């Protein structure tokens, strides 16, 4: 419409210019062909040429429009279908979010050949198929996504692994993630998913090998990471203990130094040594070395209960700690128990009473009550008193 207006304006200007040009001398234009001749004024001739030129241009445009009409109609149809594809993508994503999975899958795949980014359609359709339990169809959608955009292999693989994990196909997820790990060794989320898979299938040695990198990259919250580490390291120790003695030592050596000083790992290691070797001397060495490296009340409690070949030496070790570290309720309780095994009744009583004096605990109360109830001391009244205190402490915790 604008072009037509401009053309008419140009025509009017040309006519006015022609009239003004020839108003003093109209002149003439003669056209002759064979026996035919036409004579007119110059102004009219100019106007006729301009109008004729415009008419020829208009006719050519009309003919070109007719010639290109099929292509134009096809493009308009394609644009309409592409627009409908965009609308169906939005509708399909809303259906997926609202739980209408079958409808979502249908809408996401309709007109997908005209979608601007069919990768999104296929990935969303795969999630819809997953929710419908159509796992083969889900895998087909993921394959189609890879076919249309092979450079998005990581994104597609991560989605596939997530879906496989959600459907408890852990072995398939492991295969997918192992492949992704070769494609992108430093990809954080792939590493995180792989750690989860190893945890699920109890592949403790493989999980252990990942944990240093997992901790460095802070891929899990502290509580989750501690759970993974505990399961992985204790799992490796258990498997090693069931094979041969040397394997247990090697498995312990592979545990990070920071964990080798923690009571929960040391006690588990000791439990395995005790279960498979019955070597009390080795166990005592492990506990003493650990306490010397890092003071720990749980290990002290274990040491106080530990029956060893040389109890006198055990008492001397504990009394040296008393000199080096000073009095604590846990150490005094351990000393009292060792003295009971040595039948040093009076010394045991003094240590246990000192432990209760620092911090009354049910364990120290029960130990002292049992000691006082023995025929060697036979103080039943005091024994009943400490039994009662121990019971009250148990009820309050």
Low-confidence residue ranges: none
The share of residues in extended strands comes to under 5%
What structural class do the secondary elements suggest? mainly alpha
Total DSSP E strands: 2
SSE sequence, one letter per element: HEEHHHHHHHHHHHHHHHHHHH
Compute the average pLDDT. 85
Question: Ends: how far apart?
Answer: 90 Å
| Number of helical elements | 20
Question: Which percent bin holds the helix content?
Answer: over 70%
| Anisotropy-based shape | rod-shaped
Major sheet, described briefly? 2 strands, antiparallel
Q: Which sequence of strands runs across the widest sheet?
A: 1-2
Q: Give me the Rg, rounded.
A: 45 Å
Write the topology of this structure.
Elements: H1 2-22, E1 29-33, E2 36-40, H2 42-98, H3 101-109, H4 118-131, H5 135-148, H6 153-166, H7 170-183, H8 188-200, H9 204-217, H10 222-241, H11 245-253, H12 257-260, H13 263-276, H14 280-293, H15 297-305, H16 311-325, H17 329-341, H18 345-358, H19 362-373, H20 380-395
Antiparallel strand pairs: 1-2
Helix pairs in contact: 1-2, 2-3, 2-4, 3-4, 4-5, 5-6, 6-7, 6-8, 7-8, 8-9, 9-10, 10-11, 10-13, 13-14, 14-15, 15-17, 16-17, 17-18, 17-19, 18-19, 19-20
